[in-house]
């Protein structure tokens, strides 16, 4: 895999029809820096993920991975499955006609043993033979997560992966992912609206507003000196936590 | 979306309402319904001329090419108790005879039938024969030298045309009638021997007479048996074929007259009779002779194109047309079905 | 649909709740039984004759061989269509390539032509080269291929964009292709099965290429032997054999269809644009498929081209146009009427079947059985019914409506498959939401159910309409005198008409039909078709 070296965006823009989703964005995502992408709905967070994963080409600018040109407006120079990216999609993107195990083994590079390992890791190995339609919401989320981590990716892209989950399941999954990040070390790129998820998984933050980067920096700095409403929201949340549990608030 | 949807529904409901409304009225005295097994291209001009002359509108229902569908005859029989048709203009007497046996036809002796030879009509008047086709041999000039030209239907089983002769499926159309006639003329044994030898000689079974025409015209077969109208169309298209009226010195050429049938209990019987009268006139025989149908008149003294071979110039096979239908029914279920099965 | 489940009505004092659409109820069984009974009614007189009459044994060696031949041809043609059609459908789903739209238009062409004409076109070009089983296989394959490709495409359209992206991410382009094909395989199989069933009932290509099939044997029983009882017995035998073969398949496939089309909010798959050598390859493949489909057209039209070049002779074209003027209006009535009736019944069936797997399997099996029956059975039965009925019933039983009705009843299973599929994509929570907000059933049907089913209904309407006017046998037997359809006119005219005239007729027919189809397509929107 082209793997462990990070991504760079150079002056990337993306339009859908007349709507400009990203305009002239430049930033870097080095390996090992767990990053949260914040911003209001429709500000281009998911699009940014898809550009990085190589699922869409930029309209202008370029995406670089590990010092090599990865995507240009003319097309993909590094194919999506060669970028070492695992991804949990907002709608989970499970194939309804495939069993959970086959969903996890979507890529041929994933062996049966690895897929089962990932399923076990996510606590749903007994459900391997079922189809997504036969799973509960939490189980589907686990299946999607198992698929994303099965190939031991260098990057784990999470696009609002825990929407609609109960608190217990969500915290268990958050715990599991951060443990995974510590152990085998995929770099996490998280899109979320939930401060708890952001605080649990990310140390760095990029805020997008109307297609531009409005704020960028460590979460610690952002909480202390928020520039955007997203960061202020984060700050409010940590202060709220602080009242209940001051120790945690000091170490986000 | 919802409005487009409602408009679409309304439009379709209108279409169905339109479909229920009959474009004609069965009780309107000004029309006649004619079912015909004569090819559309030949029958329609006659129908249109009738309409022009009499002012009676003709609703023509032609048959599809033989062997491609269940066919008009079945429709006529199924509609027997309350027919929609007034006239069946049959391209051959066998179908007419079947209608008579099924009780679909009613006798009608037209005043216009004068001069038509009685041998080609039902003696009881259920059907009247007029202009005719003949069953002829055709051969491809590029594949058969003039000296080798076939002269008899029996040449289909001649070793010199081994693997190069074709015949239409004898379960259908005029070929079935021809088969029945061969059984009548050659006798049971002789006819069976002919058909068996045809297969032994590597003869090909075509799906229809039109198919025989195509096979011979394209040179995929050297000789075949078909109807004069099929042969004539091929000639007019400049195909390299030659026509032979077979067995001039033997059993003779099978003549296939048209047959006009008045349907029993049809909605417009007077107009039906008028249409039959029109069909049987010498002028109609002349029109059919000069058209691409190239049907020769049964009457003597009708003007015909110069090159046309008329009844008095050929030796017609002597068969009892009314007997053929009954024979055919039995043959179709027995020997001919078996023959067609073996030919595949 | 007024007979609803009592418990629900007793809870509500007002209008009927849309919850009946999700709840079990006696009305479902009644509606399903009623629709199938209606559909089989025209065939009943002959089926009764088949069961009561005694006569020649059905399974003679010859007939058995013919049935086998017909089945082999149907299955091989469907297999070829699957092998070519699924990749075509996947390409249409996933990629933009030069000639994509042209390919979609050309794909619809074979559905316009009765298989008999396709066969004639091929045989004109190939001479005797396709005689034997090869000919019908080529013809039916090129006729089933569009069904498979469109079914694959429709299946892919039910896929979410992210699912495809997940596949790309995990397995690259190849992964996306393989998985999309796998996803669409069940609807594609269903389409191929449908095509095979229809092909087994069609004697035309077998006649042209001189192959004995079950359909041509049945035709011989009808037309040459005049033995309707035997024909009916043979028909039922064939249908039963197909059902026995396809039944277990349908049984397995039915629940998968529902599952594959689970209700979910999906973002449509965004087609990747092919560039460079890939675009060229895509275009080349498209051209090859188009060429295969257009070849028989070329064969059909070549005599006309010859006469035009030879003498600049426009006579045949103008005569073809006058035939079109004579029959065009009635043709549209038949297509629209039959399509409408088919969709009405098919979608009513789908709503009545609901989400129950057992009912779904039964419905699919019954639909397949109906499709396998030769059209002549129903057509002759309809004539007998109309003849037995009093004269005042003529506007219904002996009018253009009668033909629309018979064709609609024959083809409603096609629409029902569309309906079942569309029904499966609706979410039960829609009805729940409606019930919570007190939306009455009528309003729910109008505002939610109908618009949701509308795109599928439009597609089913088009397909049923096209298949209806291609059905010559039924039209010949049932059209009111003087109200022939254009394809029927082609068939009646083509005996002994000059080849150039037949060619002109075929050309005019295909051109006009393609134009209408194209216009409708534009109207409904490319995306939905």
Notes on the structure:
Chain A has 252 residues and is an alpha/beta fold. Chain A has nine helices and eleven strands. In chain A, the strands form two sheets. Chain A has a six-stranded mixed β-sheet. A five-stranded antiparallel β-sheet of chain A has the order 2-1-4-5-6, covered by helices on one side. The longest helix of chain A has 17 residues. The C terminus of chain A is likely disordered. In chain B, 41% of the residues lie in helices and 17% in strands. Chain B folds into two domains: 163 residues, Periplasmic binding protein-like II (D-Maltodextrin-Binding Protein, domain 2); 140 residues, D-Maltodextrin-Binding Protein, domain 2, CATH 3.40.190. With 344 residues, chain B is α/β, with parallel strands linked by helices. By secondary structure, chain C is an all-alpha fold. Chain C is 79% helix and 1% strand. A two-stranded parallel sheet of chain C has the order 1-2. The two termini of chain C are 29 Å apart. Chains B and C meet through helix 1, strand 1, helix 2, strand 2 and helix 3 of B and helix 9, helix 10, helix 13, helix 15 and helix 16 of C.
What is the secondary structure topology, with strand pairs?
The complex is a heterotrimer of chains A (252), B (344) and C (529).
Chain A: E1 7-16, E2 19-29, E3 35-38, H1 45-53, E4 60-65, E5 68-72, E6 75-76, E7 85-88, H2 100-104, H3 112-121, H4 137-149, E8 155-159, H5 167-183, E9 187-191, H6 195-201, E10 204-209, E11 212-218, H7 219-224, H8 229-244, H9 246-250
Parallel strand pairs in A: 3-9, 3-10, 7-8, 8-9
Antiparallel strand pairs in A: 1-2, 1-4, 4-5, 5-6, 10-11
Chain B: H1 2-20, E1 31-36, H2 40-54, E2 57-62, H3 72-78, E3 87-90, H4 93-102, E4 105-106, E5 127-140, E6 165-168, H5 173-200, E7 204-206, H6 209-217, E8 223-227, H7 228-236, E9 241-244, E10 255-263, H8 269-280, H9 282-290, H10 321-333, H11 335-343
Parallel strand pairs in B: 1-2, 1-3, 6-7, 6-8
Antiparallel strand pairs in B: 3-10, 4-10, 5-8, 5-9, 5-10
Chain C: H1 6-11, H2 26-40, H3 44-52, H4 61-94, E1 95-96, H5 100-112, H6 115-126, H7 134-157, H8 161-200, H9 204-208, H10 214-224, H11 228-260, E2 272-273, H12 276-311, H13 315-353, H14 357-372, H15 375-388, H16 394-397, H17 400-424, H18 428-436, H19 441-470, H20 472-478, H21 486-494, H22 499-524
Parallel strand pairs in C: 1-2
Protein name (chain B): Iron ABC transporter substrate-binding protein
InterPro entries (chain B): Ferric-bd
Keywords (chain B): Signal
């Amino acid at each position: 895999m082209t793997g462990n070296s990070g991504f760079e965006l150079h002056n990337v823009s993306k339009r859908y029809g007349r709507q400009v989703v990203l305009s002239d964005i430049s930033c870097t995502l080095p390996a090992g820096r767990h990053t949260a992408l914040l911003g209001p709905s429709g500000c281009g967070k998911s699009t940014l993920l898809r550009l990085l994963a190589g699922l869409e080409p930029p309209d202008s600018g370029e995406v670089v991975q590990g010092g090599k040109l990865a995507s240009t407006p003319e097309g993909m120079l590094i194919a999506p499955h060669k970028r070492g990216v695992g991804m949990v999609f907002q709608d989970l993107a499970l194939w309804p006609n495939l069993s959970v195990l086959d969903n996890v083994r979507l890529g041929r590079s994933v062996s049966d043993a690895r897929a089962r390992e990932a399923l076990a890791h996510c606590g749903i190995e007994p459900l391997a033979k079922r189809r997504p339609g036969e799973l509960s919401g939490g189980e589907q989320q686990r299946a999607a997560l198992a698929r994303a981590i099965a190939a031991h990716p260098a990057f784990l892209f999470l696009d609002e992966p825990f929407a609609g989950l109960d608190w217990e399941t969500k915290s268990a999954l958050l715990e599991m992912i951060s443990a995974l990040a510590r152990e085998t070390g995929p770099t996490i790129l998280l899109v979320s609206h939930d401060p708890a998820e952001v605080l649990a998984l990310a140390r760095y933050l990029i805020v997008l507003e109307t297609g531009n980067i409005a704020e960028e920096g460590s979460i610690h700095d952002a909480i202390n000196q928020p520039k955007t409403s997203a960061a202020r929201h984060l700050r409010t949340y940590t202060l709220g936590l602080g009242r209940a549990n001051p120790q945690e608030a000091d170490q986000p | 979306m919802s409005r487009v949807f409602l408009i679409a529904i309304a439009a379709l409901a209108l279409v169905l309402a339109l479909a229920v409304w009959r474009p004609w009225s069965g009780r309107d005295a000004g029309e006649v319904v004619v079912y015909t097994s004569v090819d559309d291209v030949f029958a329609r001009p006659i129908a249109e001329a009738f309409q022009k002359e009499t002012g009676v509108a003709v609703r023509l229902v032609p048959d599809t090419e033989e062997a491609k569908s269940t066919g008009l005859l079945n429709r006529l029989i199924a509609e027997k108790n309350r027919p929609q048709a007034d006239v069946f203009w049959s391209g051959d007497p066998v179908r007419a005879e079947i209608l008579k046996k099924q009780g679909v036809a009613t006798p009608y002796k037209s005043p216009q039938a004068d001069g038509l030879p009685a041998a080609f009509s039902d003696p009881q008047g259920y059907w009247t024969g007029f202009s005719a086709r003949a069953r002829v041999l055709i051969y491809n000039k590029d594949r058969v030298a003039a000296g080798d030209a076939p002269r008899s239907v029996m040449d289909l089983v001649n070793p010199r045309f081994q693997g190069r002769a074709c015949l239409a499926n004898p379960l259908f159309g005029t070929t079935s009638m021809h088969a029945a006639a061969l059984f009548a003329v050659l006798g049971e044994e002789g006819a069976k021997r002919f058909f068996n030898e045809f297969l032994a000689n590597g003869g090909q079974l075509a799906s229809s007479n039109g198919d025989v025409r195509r096979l011979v015209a394209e040179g995929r077969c050297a000789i075949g048996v078909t109807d004069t109208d099929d042969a004539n169309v091929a000639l007019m298209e400049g195909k390299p074929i030659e026509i032979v009226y077979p067995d001039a010195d033997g059993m003779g050429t099978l003549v296939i007259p048209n047959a006009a049938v008045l349907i029993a209990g049809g909605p417009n019987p007077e107009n039906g009779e008028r249409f039959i009268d029109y069909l049987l006139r010498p002028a109609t025989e002349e029109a059919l002779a000069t058209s691409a149908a190239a049907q020769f008149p049964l009457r003597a003294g009708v003007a015909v194109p110069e090159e046309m071979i008329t009844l008095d110039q050929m030796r017609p096979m002597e068969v009892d047309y009314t007997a053929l239908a009954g024979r055919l029914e039995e043959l179709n279920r027995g020997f001919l079905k078996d023959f067609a099965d073996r030919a595949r | 649909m007024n007979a609803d489940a009592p418990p629900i009505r007793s809870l509500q004092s007002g209008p009927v709740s849309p919850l009946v659409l999700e709840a079990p109820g006696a009305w479902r069984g009644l509606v399903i039984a009623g629709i199938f009974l209606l559909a089989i009614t025209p065939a009943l007189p002959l089926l009764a004759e088949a069961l009561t009459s005694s006569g020649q044994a059905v399974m003679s060696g010859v007939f058995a061989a013919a049935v086998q031949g017909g089945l082999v041809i149907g299955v091989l043609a469907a297999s070829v269509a699957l092998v070519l059609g699924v990749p075509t459908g996947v390409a249409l789903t996933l990629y933009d390539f030069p000639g994509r739209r042209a390919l979609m238009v050309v794909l619809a062409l074979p559905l316009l032509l009765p298989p008999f004409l396709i066969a004639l076109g091929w045989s004109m070009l190939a001479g005797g080269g396709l005689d034997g089983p090869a000919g019908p296989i080529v013809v039916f394959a090129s006729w089933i291929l569009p069904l498979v490709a469109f079914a694959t495409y429709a299946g892919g359209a039910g896929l979410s964009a992210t699912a495809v992206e997940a596949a790309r991410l995990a397995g690259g382009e190849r992964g996306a292709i393989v998985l999309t094909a796998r996803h669409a395989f069940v609807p594609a199989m269903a389409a191929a099965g449908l095509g095979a069933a229809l092909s087994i009932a069609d004697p035309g290509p077998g006649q042209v290429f001189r192959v004995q099939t079950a359909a041509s044997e049945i035709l011989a029983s009808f037309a040459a032997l005049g033995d309707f009882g035997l024909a009916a017995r043979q028909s039922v035998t064939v249908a039963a054999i197909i059902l026995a073969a396809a039944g277990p398949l349908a049984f397995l496939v039915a629940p998968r269809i529902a599952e594959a089309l689970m209700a979910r909010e999906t973002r449509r798959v965004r087609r990747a644009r092919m560039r460079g050598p890939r675009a060229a390859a895509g275009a080349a493949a498209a051209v090859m498929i188009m060429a295969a489909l257009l070849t028989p057209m070329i064969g059909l039209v070549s005599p006309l081209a010859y006469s035009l070049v030879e003498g600049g002779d426009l006579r045949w074209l103008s005569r073809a146009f006058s035939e079109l003027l004579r029959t065009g209006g009635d043709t549209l009535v038949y297509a629209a009427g039959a399509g409408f009736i088919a969709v009405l019944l098919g979608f009513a069936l789908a709503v009545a079947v609901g989400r129950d797997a057992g009912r779904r399997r039964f419905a699919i099996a019954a639909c397949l059985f109906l499709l396998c029956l030769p059209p002549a059975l129903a057509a002759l039965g309809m004539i007998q019914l109309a003849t037995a009925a009093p004269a005042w019933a003529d506007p219904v039983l002996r009018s253009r409506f009668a033909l629309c009705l018979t064709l609609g009843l024959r083809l409603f299973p096609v629409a029902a498959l569309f309906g079942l599929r569309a029904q499966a994509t609706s979410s039960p929570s829609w009805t729940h939401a409606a019930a919570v907000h007190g939306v009455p059933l009528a309003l729910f049907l109008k505002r939610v159910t109908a618009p949701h089913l509308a795109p599928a209904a439009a597609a089913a309407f088009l397909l049923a309409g096209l298949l209806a006017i291609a059905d010559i046998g039924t039209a010949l037997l049932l059209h009111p005198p003087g109200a022939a359809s254009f394809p029927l006119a082609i068939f009646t005219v083509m005996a002994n008409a000059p080849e150039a005239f037949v060619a002109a007729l075929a050309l005019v027919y295909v051109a006009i039909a393609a134009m209408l189809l194209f216009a409708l397509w534009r109207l409904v929107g490319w995306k939905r078709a």
